[in-house]
Amino acid sequence: MSPTITAFEQSPDHGKGQARDMRIRWALEEVGQPYDVRLVSFKAMKEPAHRALHPFGQIPTYEEGDLALFESGAIVFHIAERHVGLLPDDANARARAVTWMFAALNTVEPPIVEREQAPYLERDKAWYDERLPLLEDRVRGRLNELSNRLGDADWLDNTFSAGDLLMVTVLRRLNGSGMLDEFPNLSAYVARGEARPAFKRAFDAQLAIWQARQ
Ligand code: GTB
Predict the structure, then answer these.
(1) Which CATH number characterizes residue 35's domain?
(2) How does pLDDT run across 22-34, given as a tens digit for each residue?
């Protein structure tokens, strides 16, 4: 049975693949698992039927038989555990790949999201002009550390893994900010991820939803 995921009926990013269903789509494409998508409106997301799947009233969710999951990291981990291709067989390499999954979501993504949200949550506040450069510096700090660790390597730990998949989706949130361009090895890393056929299939599928509604 194919799993069913949820995605925005009308994504605020207009099909740029920034919403977190993109991670799930990409993971499923990497492992060759077909899937169905149920589109949800912002209103439906907050109603009991959806909250039964996602306590915080968000997307993405993942349903497979009687299993229902939320949290993009947990869903990608579930897919990676059940299929070949996103986590190495070697136990230590696997543990390191999982470490990179956590690093992407817990260490790199939070400052990026905070900086991304400031313009629409705090622009009218007295502190905004002073706070924005501080938030940007926090992002740059993390990017600098990640850039130093990646160096000239293609992927974070030898071979492409779920850790890279999540890290690339996190870094893509900086598209249009110009910040990634300051770190050429990270820009190249993101481009390498985006060049994977599975990424392209996932991207095209979510873009098609946006285009069909125009
Ligand atoms: N920690 C959860 C996870 O990783 O799954 C976070 C889930 C989450 O933030 N979901 C967002 C959501 O449902 C969509 S992805 N928001 C609606 C709500 O909370 O009411 C975040 C997102 C949304 C839009 C853009 N964009 O337009 O660029 C980018 C990212």
Answers:
(1) 3.40.30.10
(2) 999 999 999 999 9
